[in-house]
Design goal:
The protein has about 400 residues and is α/β, with parallel strands linked by helices. It is about 40% helix and about 20% strand. It has 17 helices and 15 strands. Strands 7-8-6-5-4-3-2-1-9 form a nine-stranded mixed sheet, sandwiched between helices. Strands 10-11-12 form a three-stranded antiparallel sheet, with no helix packed on it. Strands 13-15-14 form a three-stranded antiparallel sheet. Helix 1 runs parallel beside helix 2 and helix 11 packs across helix 17. The longest helix has 17 residues. It is globular and about 55 Å long. The two termini are about 40 Å apart.
Amino acid sequence: MMTEKTLGLYLHIPFCQSKCPYCDFHSDTDTSMASRYTEALLLHMEDYARAAAAHDVDTVFFGGGTPTVLPVNRLIAILEGIEDVFHLRNDAEITVEANPATVTLSELKRLRRAGVNRLSMGLQSANDDELAALGRIHTFDDFVDSFCAARKAGFHNISVDLMYGIPGQTLDSFRRTLQEVVALEPEHISVYGLKIEEGTPFADRKDSLNLPDEDTESEMYFEAIRLLADAGYAQYEISNFAKPGKQCLHNLRYWNCEEYLGFGPGAHSYFGGRRFAFRRSTEDYVRAMEYPGSVSDLLSEDYEVHPSERLGEYVMLRMRLTEGVDTDAFSSLFGVSFEKLFAKYLNLYASHGFMEKSGRRWHFTPKGMYVSNYILSAMLDFDSDILSGIADGSDR
């Protein structure tokens, strides 16, 4: 029986075979706790059985880390746990992230039979020198072999992650990566710019990295938009491109401000009008699940979403999408005109080619998408008191 409420689930698998020097996600190369961690996830999900009883789960995402570092029987056990605890729709999108060096044909077949119907494969580059610079544990040939194995296993919805701004990367080498991946015809392609995050090995030696300059990085981004559009991949979000009907439904939940529950250290949730997250410690997480009563100590944040925050989040997340903000939907949700509230910025950025209006929708142009963080920061920080008053209903 289908309900009116839907819910997404995120399962964080905090283990990797090798830690990439640019990555700041919570993960560890020590997998000795894998068995206990699997049980901890199952116990944690049971805690939400009653709260989520009125929801249908229509998206599940195993992220990491590297989920495929776990033995496949453990991933299947987690999926079976989801089916036991939640109302999982028969047509739910179930995604597993995979490193090309950590999957085999037999394992992929088992995942497919268990109900996983979408793979997100981390390639990053088709150039082996660039993969080595990133500390990846696979070659391009390894990726091609894994991709073909996934097709043989019955996966008809595969996403490929690519990166630009890699040390030693050129516009030509990035174009080659795009062309090589397009030739394989995945259903979805994500293209992310390399960010040097504090606390990572790359940050410690940033000055010695042979990084492309800012102009070259921007050329790479616009080249991706052009080349992928020509190949039939429509951009639907800042970094995401898909064949028709193959957008990532789970990630769309985030950008549409829909509910989701995250399980695991570092996982975030938006559920019941609250946002909360768990501390980035696998050991503490496992212990808290093994000894009831200490789960609340795991929270790194937990707060009710204030109406003004909800308005700001809605604008920030919706503007990540190429369809942008529908002015009628905005007025219906918040009781105020989007164009009235942000008139100064809409007119300014439209006049400079960063935004445009199509029918009822205000959205970024590709030029605006590239600098969207700066624009949205200006729009949403211009006067927090005004935003709070409008969202609270004190100013219409």
